[in-house]
Amino acid sequence: MARSDINRSGEMEVFARVVEEGGFTAAAKALSMTPSAVSKLVARLEARLGSRLVNRSTRKLQLTAEGLTFHERSLRVLAELDEAERSVSACAVPRGRLRINANVPFGLHHLLPLIPKFSALNPQVQVDVTLTDQVIDLLDERAELAIRVGPMRPSQLVARKLGDSRTVLVASPEYLARRGTPKHPDDLADHDLITFNFSRQSDEWPFRIGGERVSYPVQGSALVGDGESATHLALAGQGITKLGIFHIIDPIRAGRLVPVLDEFNSGELETVSAVYVGHAGPLPARVRAMIDFLAAEVDVHWPMGRAV
How many CB atoms lie within 10 A of CB 274? Predict the structure, then answer.
C-alpha cells in the first residue's frame, strides 16, 4: 500500500509537465516552481520507483523506456482524476440517476408531463420517480429531491418554494343536480363531504363570512388518503371535497367539477415546495438542474377570487 504522505498525483502532474515542456526549466516556469525543486521531485520519484525515467546526459530531454511507459500511464490517471472532479463539481454537466419523490396529484399532473422536456435538456440524467402520498424520509429512501405540499415542519431539509395553490370546494354537476347546490357554509351540514384520513389533516374547513374567517367542523361521509382519490370520488358524484386548485384545474375547466361556495373562499393556500437535504455540502448538478427547471416550469398558481 502506498504511503499516505506521498502525493502521487502531484508527482505525475509535474513529470507530465516536464515531458510536455521539454525540460525542467520550462516546466518549472509553467508550474511556478524553481528548476531545482522540479529536478529534485523527479529524482525522488525515480528513487521511489527504482527506475530512471529521464536521461539527463543529453541537451534535449530524453525519456527512458520506463519513462515512456510511466508518462503514458500518468496521462491516463490524470485524465481520469480530472473527469472524476468534473463529474461531481457544482458546475458539472448534470448526469447520473436522480431519485425524486412526489405526491400522486402533483406527480401525475405536473411532474411527469414535464419529464420529457427535462430529459431533452439534460440527456445524461436518468430520472427515477416515485409517487406516493406518504411523507418519506429522504435519507432512508435514498431520494435526492422530494415535492411537498403544505407547511414544512422544522427539519434538516431545505425547501425551495415552487408556488402557492389556492384551495377550493368542488362537486360534480351530477351530485349538485341530485342534492342541490349549497348557498352558505351552513348548508354543508346537509351534504356528503369527502375528507382525508391522515393525521395532519384538519377536521375544519375555513370560510370568510362578512369579512371574518370562520371555521366549520366537517365530518366526511367518505374518507381518503390522497387528493387523487378525493378527485375521483368527487367526479363520481360521491359528494363535495376541498382540494388545491392544482389537483383539479383540468376537470373544472372541462365542467366535470364545479366550484362550490367560492364566494366564501377564505383564500387558504397550499404551498408547493421542492425539498432536499441541506447539510451534505453542495448539491449535485443533476439535483440543482431539476430544482431550477421546476421553479421555471411549474405553475400551480390560480388567481384569487372566483376559481373559474
Answer: 23
